[in-house]
Amino acid sequence: MDSVTQAVLGAAVGVAVMGRRTAVWKAAVAGAVAGTVPDLDVLVSHGDPVLDMVQHRSHSHSLFWLSLAGPAAGWLLARWLGEGALRWRWAFAIWLALVTHPLLDAFTVYGTQLLQPFSDRPFGLGSVFIVDPFYTVPMIVGVAWALRSRGSTRGLAANGLALAVSCAYLGWGVVVQHQVEAVARESLAAHGVAAQRVLVTPVAFTSLLWRVVAVGEGHYYEGFHSLLDKSSRVTFERFDRGAALEPAVASIDAVRRLQAFSHGYYRLFERGDRLMISDLRMGMEPNYLFTFEVAERRSAPVPLVPPRQVGMRVDLSRAWPWYWQRLAGEPVSMRR
To answer: What is the tens place of the pLDDT at every residue in 195-215?
Structure first.
């Protein structure tokens, strides 16, 4: 999730755990800092944009490492604050603020390596968008109420209720995701598409509009489903996946990493004399957040070292009207 959300979640957790045992602002600040710490890995450059992508949310998001660091950090904080009698409470608060960060990230589609150093498998449920005000705003209200009331019973109750509401929203997203996936699979079958894998993720800022990506033999399919749609069928558009380019790039390290990290949701294509790869999970056709130039086409492809990330360009004058119309259930295409 975005940094603001992670900081607010950490603050809400800190306030909920510490209650009135310490000043509410101390709990909020300490929780917000702990909730932000795992994302400091973005400051580490690996000298390669593909490595920067696949190494984000790795060791700094490991439940194992954070479970070792959290209690120790909590003890040190209690000592620094002169609240040694609360060292176990502080240890629990900081640990929980740390581990809820990667657990929340795992609900997004990006991929979070929760099991480092034992496994580098990226977990990405994809049931919530990386920025979703319906998840974040309740916690902002709850923390603000607790701070304004200086830890009154009502303020702490409001913070706890806000946490519960936000957690319930995550559960809602998982339920709706499964429902939309069922609709999408029925629609694919009706279109005669034999999909090898199907991905269902929410479009920006909402859990009412969902994007579906289905990968088939040589092609991928993109469709959208709003909970306000009158039809229960998803309309798909078909695109070439670039399977003919697979042999040319099969030995390139950056391509292999992206193929694994994206769980097979990728496309290959040519642009001029460059061979490109896009992660199909983040963005929508034809604009994807993670697109890289990986080789130069000559008599034989020459890998680009390091690969170069290509910026995403979105025409907001078209995107925003489409977004609101499609959200409202109108069957409009972005590419008309």
So the answer is: 999 999 999 999 999 999 999
